[in-house]
UniProtKB/TrEMBL annotation:
Pfam family, one: CobS
Spans through the membrane: 7-25, 37-56, 110-132, 138-159, 180-196, 202-220
Subcellular location: Cell membrane
Membrane topology recorded in Swiss-Prot or TrEMBL: Multi-pass membrane protein
Function field: Joins adenosylcobinamide-GDP and alpha-ribazole to generate adenosylcobalamin (Ado-cobalamin). Also synthesizes adenosylcobalamin 5'-phosphate from adenosylcobinamide-GDP and alpha-ribazole 5'-phosphate.
Protein name from the UniProt record: Adenosylcobinamide-GDP ribazoletransferase
Family: Belongs to the CobS family.
Record organism: Massilia timonae CCUG 45783
UniProt-listed PANTHER family: ADENOSYLCOBINAMIDE-GDP RIBAZOLETRANSFERASE
GO molecular function, one term: adenosylcobinamide-GDP ribazoletransferase activity
Pathway this chain belongs to: Cofactor biosynthesis; adenosylcobalamin biosynthesis; adenosylcobalamin from cob(II)yrinate a,c-diamide: step 7/7
Annotated GO CC locations: plasma membrane
Cofactor(s) listed in the protein's UniProt record: Mg(2+)
Length: 260
């Protein structure tokens, strides 16, 4: 149990700015095994984002609450996933070969494709969250963050790493089915909690799962064709697109009158 807690803290340290206990320590091999807890990190990030939204929406209009909530999650994660999304846009947009695409993605500078992509991505998040009723927006945050990280984790489970070396190389060892099952459970539990509390109904949760799956499969296919695998930036891109896909699904379900 102590080692499992250590793995969770390793995941939390890798993907957020949150401090962890000193006794945790670090070994590169632990990071691969910690991937089972990436969605649980999403639960933490989503909960903080929802809390910020709750407090802000009590005093301020919904669009402002959406901005503050999104800013809080970006600060909490150090824009880690957004940076990966921007790099992926640059690489796939400007690289005609695998080698050139990977070279562009490794460049720390943001190009036109990355800038346009991140503006569109952030704009979509803000517009979607601001369009939801406060309770639904908070529920969407609580579902989208762990589910989108499960989507990113599925690449580690099913795909090969595209680089010989890289920041995400310690993650590149494929997850076992058992490890992915643990990751899936950490998404299932909050989803069931939202369902039990009446914050989201079954139709919204199923729609979110389907939307996340479609977004993930689309990007995974593109990565396989263009890069013959994934990189750390690709994981960030999947997380971002899957997160937005969940918001779209929840809003679309609400728009059909399925949600209260």
């Amino acid at each position: 149990m102590t080692h499992q807690l250590r793995l969770f803290f390793i995941a939390l340290q890798f993907f957020t700015r949150l401090p962890i206990p000193r006794w945790v320590g670090f070994e590169p091999s632990w990071l691969n095994h910690a991937s089972r807890y990436f969605p649980l990190v999403g639960v933490v990030v989503g909960a903080i984002g929802a809390l910020v939204y709750l407090v802000a929406a009590h005093w301020l209009p919904a669009p402002v609450a959406a901005v503050l909530s999104t800013a809080a999650t970006i600060y909490l994660t150090g824009a880690f996933h957004e940076d990966g999304f921007a790099d992926t846009c640059d690489g796939l947009g400007g690289g005609m070969t695998k080698e050139r695409a990977l070279e562009i993605m490794k460049d720390s500078r943001v190009g036109a494709y990355g800038a346009i992509g991140i503006v569109c991505m952030l704009g979509a998040k803000l517009a979607l969250l601001a369009s939801l009723p406060p309770a639904s927006a908070m529920a969407a945050l609580l579902l989208a963050h762990p589910l989108s990280r499960l989507a990113a984790t599925s690449l580690i489970w099913q795909m090969e790493y595209a680089r010989a070396e890289g920041k995400a190389k310690p993650l590149a060892v494929r997850m076992s089915d058992r490890e992915f099952g643990i990751a899936a459970v950490t998404v299932l539990l909050p989803a069931l909690g939202l369902l039990a509390c009446g914050l989201l109904d079954l139709a919204a949760i199923v729609a979110a799962l389907v939307a996340s799956l479609v977004a993930t499969c689309w990007l995974a296919r593109k990565f396989t064709r263009r890069l013959q695998g994934y990189t750390g930036d690709c994981l960030g891109a999947v997380q971002q697109l899957a997160e937005v896909a969940v918001y779209i699904a929840v809003l679309a379900t609400l728009g059909r009158g399925v949600l209260a």
